[in-house]
Design goal:
By secondary structure, the protein is mainly alpha-helical. It contains 30 helices and 12 strands. The strands form 6 sheets. A two-stranded antiparallel ribbon has the order 1-2. Strand 7 and strand 8 form a beta hairpin. Helix 7 runs parallel beside helix 9 (268-296).
Length: 722
């Protein structure tokens, strides 16, 4: 019969009471259509006079564990001998509690000895079995994660560790087998010689007829080379370092668990070599985990699991010092957070009845925190942290702390940066005393221009990186107000006073002179020099005496005070003369070389160069030495572009400065001795234009010249006419 045919059944019992329908005629249709009509009938059901159901249908059954199914289930505790009651039955949506897959695909659903159909969450046995299956190899390594936390990172770490364990086992087994040493001692006994000639078999390799002496000389020696195992571990650690933070730490700790018991059979030398290699690998993995702990800031429960796992490792005696190395302070630790926020200004936390808690951390953790705060651009918090944190490795901590002034400059706190520059502790001198000349010049540029290099020091590789203060990209500093020029000059003089490396280098003095006598410095570091009017003679004389007093106090008490009266009338000229007087003291101290670009700093203010010269007049030997250095650089073309041939003004300035030596009676020019002989030998006005200007000036001042200087002028004329 066609499935679409409608069948009409007529009842032959009219008296039969039908509670379902009012008619004795039934229309039998297709099942689906009948169900739809039934639903349609239900849609007109009136539940309340205010509520009418317009549509309804049966609920969809979602995937569920077998014990949650509507099919009856018998709960037992770890029974695997056989199927309990009707537990093997399942619907289409039933899942295996152990395998976490549809019951229809479970291989061990009703197999005696397994019987996953009996599994349920109320049993400790079944729950442990499920946790083990979910965590996989991590469970075998004794990680104690909650199976609910097994995400993609942990699954990837589990798969990598399992594969690594297999390959490591192969390498370690080959290592334990050893390799026979190729260096076997030769035996010269008679039996060895006889048997080797007749049988061609070496007694040490099982030859017959060898005596006890022969066997004693040919004992097999095995060598154990751990390098292949170490290389395999290093490759895995490199792979782990490229993973996400969560997978990385699990892989690192898992690798530590797999190698911590490695040892070597045989002699003490092999055992010691393996012990050193294992210790090196453990320290490497531990260091990476510490760094990731700081950088990733894991949830406290996850961190606790990892710390517990690490403390349970059977570390060798040589590594017991790292037993608690993963017990790091979290970022929300009361003491650490209070220091970062500036709420704790001592670096200590006191709790009643307990010893004071000090902010102490390993140097590797300190480096990681510095890098994290740099990435977050929390420079003020970074300064506070470096100010109070303590560490056994004081030298490396000092190297990190020396960058504190730069961090303060980054937030525009220039005054605090200068204060920190000169702050010292009981164990170290001030950062200013350790500045290099290049860093000194860079800080001066920051303080004057309000721009800072965009780069930052990498705390993980301080000694092998490009110096950030020497970077070419400088960006404006947001916020803060620049120090006035007086404070900048005071900073420069204090550094010159306490730092021998900065004090002796010419570039330091050029930078300070340019700042003291310039109007401004552009963001790109270009000095916008300016010509200052020459003050009156009384001011120049008075300024020399006051400047000597200021510098004397600086050298004796390491402090500098510049009175307002010192700058009255000529404020900018006074600062320039103060720095020039400090330069005079530097020249009196020892030879300053190169000197020419220092002299050229006075080009727009030649009166200051004259003031410098007359500050040295009382020391003829110093003047003569200064003349020697200047002439050497001029004649040997060491000026590196300072004196271009077409720049007549620069050559005229040099000639004017040299003229001062000719006019000074205490300076003697002997044409038979150096440097006069060198000057005459190298006289070439076409090659050295300053010589032309000097000759013309000497001719103009000939009547004022001493006899020895006139003799030099005559010899110059003789060379020109030759």
């Amino acid at each position: 019969m066609d499935q679409n045919t409608t069948v009409i059944i007529v009842s032959d019992d009219e008296e039969e009471d039908c509670a379902v329908c009012e008619s004795s005629v039934f229309i039998v249709e297709d099942t689906e259509r009948t169900a739809e009509k039934a639903d349609a009938r239900r849609t007109s059901e009136v539940v309340d006079e205010d509520v009418t159901i317009t549509f309804s249908r049966g609920a969809n059954v979602l995937p569920h564990a077998r014990y949650d199914c509507t099919i009856p289930f018998c709960f037992t505790d770890g029974d695997v001998t056989g199927v309990e009651d009707n537990n093997a039955a399942y619907c289409d949506q039933c899942f295996c509690y152990i395998c976490d897959r549809p019951a229809s695909t479970c291989t061990f659903w009703a197999i005696p000895g397994f019987c996953h159909c009996n599994a349920h969450k109320r049993s400790f046995y079944w729950k442990s079995l499920r946790d083990k299956r979910i965590m996989g190899y991590l469970h075998e390594l004794n990680f104690t994660f909650d199976p609910m936390d097994m995400d993609a990172d942990l699954r990837r770490a589990e798969a990598a560790l399992q594969q690594f364990a297999c390959s490591l086992a192969v390498e370690y087994a080959a290592f334990l087998m050893g390799v026979e040493s190729p260096k076997q001692p030769l035996c010269h006994c008679q039996c060895h010689l006889t048997n080797s000639r007749t049988a061609g078999v070496h007694p040490a390799n099982g030859g017959q007829g060898a005596c006890k002496s022969c066997y004693g000389h040919h004992v097999t020696v095995l060598e154990y080379d751990y390098s292949a195992v170490q290389d395999r571990v290093c490759v895995f650690l490199d792979e782990a370092a490229q993973e996400t933070p969560k997978a990385c730490v699990v892989m690192m700790l898992g690798a530590m668990k797999l190698i911590v018991t490695h040892t070597a059979p045989g002699n003490t030398h092999s055992i010691n070599e393996v012990s050193k290699s294992v210790m090196t690998l453990l320290y490497r993995a531990k260091s990476v985990v510490q760094t990731v702990f700081v950088d990733a800031d894991f949830p406290a429960p996850f961190t606790k699991h990892l710390q517990t796992f690490f403390q349970g490792l059977p570390l060798p005696p040589t590594c017991m010092s790292i037993k608690n190395s993963l017990n790091l302070l979290p970022w929300d630790d009361p003491l650490l957070s209070a220091v970062l926020k500036g709420q704790n200004v001592s670096g200590e936390r006191r709790v009643k009845g307990r010893r004071a808690e000090v902010l102490w951390e390993p140097i590797l953790v300190i480096r990681a925190r510095v890098q994290k705060l740099q990435q977050q651009k929390k420079f003020r918090e970074l300064f506070r942290y470096l100010k109070f944190v303590k560490c056994h490795n004081t030298q490396e901590l000092q190297d990190l702390s020396d960058w504190a002034p730069l961090y303060l400059c980054k937030v525009g706190d220039y005054a605090s940066a200068v204060d920190v520059m000169f702050s010292s502790t009981s164990v170290s001198s001030s950062p200013a005393s350790r500045l290099s000349p290049a860093h000194f010049c860079a800080y001066l540029r920051i303080l004057v221009s309000g721009h800072a290099p965009s780069g930052l020091p990498n705390p993980l590789i301080l000694n092998a990186q490009q110096d950030p203060l020497i970077g070419t990209t400088w960006t404006p500093i947001q916020g803060g107000s620049l120090l006035n020029r007086v404070e900048v000059v005071k900073f420069a003089l204090r550094v010159l006073n306490c730092n021998d490396a900065v004090f002796t280098q010419s570039v330091s003095w050029v930078t300070v002179l340019n700042i003291a006598g310039s109007a401004s410095i552009s963001p790109d570091g270009t000095v916008n020099s300016t010509s200052l009017p020459e003050p009156d003679c009384n001011f120049l004389v008075r300024t020399r005496d006051v400047a000597k007093g200021i510098l004397s106090e600086l050298s004796q008490a390491s402090r500098i005070q510049i009175p307002k009266t010192f700058r009255s009338g000529y404020p900018q000229q006074a600062l320039l003369l103060l720095v020039t007087q400090a330069l005079a003291l530097r020249i009196l101290h020892s030879r300053l070389c190169p000197i020419l670009h220092v002299i050229m700093a006075f080009r727009l203010n030649p009166w200051v160069a004259y003031w410098l010269f007359y500050s040295l007049v009382g020391q003829p030997n110093v003047l003569l030495d200064l003349l020697c250095v200047v002439l050497e650089e001029l004649l040997e073309n060491r000026h590196h572009g300072l004196l271009r041939k077409q720049d007549s003004a620069a050559h005229r300035f040099v000639a004017n400065f040299l003229l001062l030596f000719f006019l000074e009676c205490t300076v003697v020019f002997d044409h038979h001795t150096y440097p006069t002989s060198e000057l005459l030998a190298g006289w070439n006005e076409s090659h050295h234009p300053w010589q032309y200007h000097l000759r013309r000036m000497l001719e103009t001042k000939e009547q004022c010249l001493a006899p020895d200087k006139r003799r030099v002028l005559q010899m110059i004329h003789w060379r020109l006419n030759k």
